[in-house]
């Protein structure tokens, strides 16, 4: 006998791909939003960390450039 998970997956596939025609753009965007929503905070945290690292690298580069200009 198939597992309950299999029935759940089949039901999910039916919502993704209706039997009569393609999924609409609006339906796709709605489903995509629901699937990605749990990951949005993680992505935003990663972007914040990346921006902070980029700022630190820029500051170091500016210090090196100023030091090189003074020594010339």
TrEMBL record:
The organism's place on the tree of life at top rank: Eukaryota
Organism: Hemibagrus guttatus
Entry protein name: DMAP1-binding domain-containing protein
Domain DMAP1-binding: 20-45
């Amino acid at each position: 006998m198939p597992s309950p998970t299999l029935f759940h997956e089949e039901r999910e596939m039916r919502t993704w791909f209706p039997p009569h025609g393609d999924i609409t753009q609006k339906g796709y965007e709605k489903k995509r939003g629901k699937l990605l929503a749990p990951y949005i905070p993680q992505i935003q945290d990663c972007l914040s960390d990346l921006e902070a690292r980029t700022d630190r690298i820029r500051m170091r580069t500016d210090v090196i450039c100023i030091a090189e200009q003074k020594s010339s």
